[in-house]
Amino acid sequence: MEMVNALGRRKSAVARIFVTEGTGKITINKKDLLEYFPSSILQYVVKQPLMKLDVVEKYDIKVNLDGGGYTGQSQALRLAIARALVKINPEDKKALRSEGFLTRDAREVERKKPGQPKARRRFQFSKR
């Protein structure tokens, strides 16, 4: 198997991944997965597509993560991994789609408007 690459985005986070056959090692920005995401919940989110298809120990994944916070980054990485797995084996698409791993979450932060403290919050109204 040759190297397969994919892209995942969430909020302002961008994950570019390169998948090769290997032993299940996930390297993010030259750090190990356990070091980059100390939270077990975020590690679980990243591995969800691999666990669904039972291929956790089959592929080595090298990741370039940029932008956003840790939650957005982990979800961007999950999308990228799911897309790469579909490129490797198109028959897996139905299983990953049913779990929602191939859907790009398009929600972005709404911009702050002038004359208001936040995007939708207004200053307190005073009648008198």
Explain what you see.
A hairpin with a 2-residue loop joins strand 3 and strand 4. The chain is an alpha+beta fold. The protein has a 5-stranded mixed β-sheet. The termini are far apart. Helix content is 34%, strand content 23%. The longest helix is centred in the middle third of the chain and has 19 residues, at 70-88. The mean pLDDT is 94.
What attributes does this structure have?
128 residues, alpha+beta, Ribosomal Protein S5, domain 2, 5 strands, 34% helix
Radius of gyration: 18 Å
Distance from first to last alpha carbon: 73 Å
How many β-strands, per DSSP? Answer: 5
Given as residue ranges, the uncertain stretches (5+ residues, pLDDT < 50) are none
Helix % is 25-40%
The fraction of residues in strands falls at 15-25%
Helix-strand topology string: EEEEHHEHH
Question: What about the largest sheet?
Answer: 5 strands, mixed
Quaternary state of this entry equals single chain
Basic shape: elongated
Report the CATH C-level class.
Alpha Beta
Structure, briefly:
With about 130 residues, the chain is α+β, with helices and mostly antiparallel strands. It has helices at about 35, 40-55, 70-90, 95-100, and strands at about 5-10, 15-20, 25-30, 30, 60-65. Helix 2 packs parallel to helix 3.
